[in-house]
Amino acid sequence: MSMFSIFDISSSAVSAQAQRLNVVASNLANVDAVAGPDGKTYKARQVVFQTTPMGDDSAAGVKVSAIQESDVPGRKVHDPSNPLADADGYVTHSNVNPVEEMVNMISASRSYQNNVEVMNTAKTLLLKTLQMGQ
Prior knowledge:
Structural class: alpha+beta
Number of helices: 2
Order of helices and strands: HEEEEH
Strand content: 15-25%
Number of domains: 1
């Protein structure tokens, strides 16, 4: 594996984690959502990662292969005065768990930061190697 493959691998991870952060932000924005524009309640989304080959060598990066909706039922709140209430007076809210999403956000943010640090370290090592040749 060449030293330049590190940049390809880390950049693929940074891109994937950025997409994960966007999905987490969307989930957090809809924690208290009752119904979306289509009339259905918002369902939490999760990013699915997949390894992907990077170039001719045996290096593998990461990409987002899918964004899946959660099958967990939304929480029901008894509010018969709400116009979106069902026949029993319950309103179905989104199934987003804010605690899980915050943990997911911290994990994605740290992964993003770690991959940026890997690229910075690789850049520093390459510059030091060039300076040794002078």
